[in-house]
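Lab notebook page, bench 4
Experiment: in silico fold of construct C2
Operator: M.H.
Input chain length: 115 residues
Purpose: comparison with the prior construct
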Amino acid sequence: QVQLVESEGGLVQPGGSLRLSCVASGFTISRDHMNWVRQAPGKGLEWVSRIYMDSTYTNYVDFVKGRFTIARDNAKNTLYLQMNNLKPEDTAVYYCVKGWVLTNWGQGTQVTVSS
C-alpha cells in the first residue's frame, strides 16, 4: 500500500527558508517520478517540481526556479523540498505526489509565508 507522509510545514517570514520532507512507504521512490504540487488559498492546484525516476534530473516551474530544490534520499525513501527566499505568494498547502500522472498524494502540509 502506497503511503506518502509529509512533514509539518509552518509559518515563515518572507525571505526565510523551510525544508519539507515526505516519507514514502509501499514503493521505492527512486523507481518512480516524484513531485511537489501546491494549492494556494482560493486557487487551483499548481505543479511545482519533479525529480525523475532513476535519475537526479529535476524540473521546476518558473516561479520557483533558483529558490526551491527537490531532492531524495534513497536510503531513507524520503523526498525533500528545500525552499529558500520564500515569498508571501508561496503560501499554500504543499503535497508530495507519486508518478508521472500524479497517482498517489500525501495528506498535504500548510506553509504560510507572512511577517
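Observations: The longest strand covers residues 18-25. The two ends are 40 Å apart (CA to CA).
Next step: discuss at group meeting.
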